[in-house]
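Morning!

This is the sequence you dropped in the shared folder:
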Amino acid sequence: MLKNKIFKIENLWWFSLFLILLFFHSNHPLNSDEGITLNGAWNLINNKELYIDFFEFIPPASFYLVFWFWKIFGVHYFVAKFFAIIIVFLSAIGIYKISQKISKNKFNYFFPFIFIISSIYWPIINHNTFNILFIIWAIYFFLKGLSNYSANPFIISGLLTGLSILFLQQKGIVLLFSLTSFLLILFFKEKKYQLLKLNFYFFIFSFLPLLILLKWPLQILYKNLIIFPLFNYTEINKLSFYLLIFFLIILLSILWLLKKEKDKKIWLLFYLQFFLLSVR
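The structure's back. Tokens below.
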């Protein structure tokens, strides 16, 4: 009886969070980031070739995701909006699952709530939002792999990391670097050669989703996805110097609090936070 009651309360909590998402994202804002994703998908619907017939500086996955939704359910703004809401909701579940990997307590339900409330101010039909989903679940399976050093979670984490690169190149690449380097650091600390094998699995499988990029000439991808963002996109996405100082103070404070912490899962989250905060 107690388990059934807890199960019903949990379902009610998640249902309430989903309703909050629906309510606050039921509008139709004018936003340049949403415009990029929707325009790219609209061009695909009209049989234009990405990077060939029209210019884009982000990877292809966001455009094709909305394109597939439209092909199945019809070309409408709120079709894309509804599935973006689902993506945010699945990201919130991933955050809850990650917190459960660190410590199982009732406060873990609070973290997805904060995430969902924060999303109210986001343009969610967006490559950043889609990218977050794959980053969160890649981290979850990586943490799962750290628990018992089994190969399958690292393989899944690798695939999800590769997919995250297809949504947003800089964050996905930073995630790949962070996770592989963390396993290398762990290897030098624990001297377990199994970690090298697991790192190899993770690294190789993270590249499998990227094979889809062979659909386009490498020279075009290099110009559009590397050169243009590197020398142009950063100018319109500069972080405030004071904001950077603020986050640095927070990270240093966390580092000081963790100085006696031995749980490698907690150190992984701190390590990731340090690198992911450095990119947009």
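Headline: The CA atoms of residues 57 and 226 lie 8 Å apart.

More detail when I'm at my desk.
O.
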